[in-house]
Amino acid sequence: MIIGAxxxxxxxxxxxxxxxxxxxLVMTVFTTRFIGGxxxxxxxxxxxxxxxxxxxxxxxxxxxxxxxxxxxVIGVGKDEINKIIELDESxxxxxxxxxxxxxxxxxxxxxxxxxxxxxxxx
Length: 122
What we know:
Order of helices and strands: HEEEEH
Number of domains: 2
Radius of gyration: 26 Å
Strand content: 15-25%
Shape: elongated
Number of helices: 2
């Protein structure tokens, strides 16, 4: 009698391990999707919304955010966030009505609004 597994037993063990591995991978994918969706719902906020961003370089962005009834333009860098200007709702033109579950979007682009304010100040 031979001590240890035979060729058939080794093949069965390999198949069982592969099935368990595939099951763990599938459960990982579903768990990740569930947690991602849950966190997205938790992070959705009615008082703060990111309206639009403009990339200036690899690590620098301008962002237009709605905070309560005000619109704020912020500069986002690698290690810092700076408030640039605060606008009232009346100062940001052409806002479409908000659809439930979707953030505010501007008909006019952020670049156009920024150019208007540059021209107004200078």
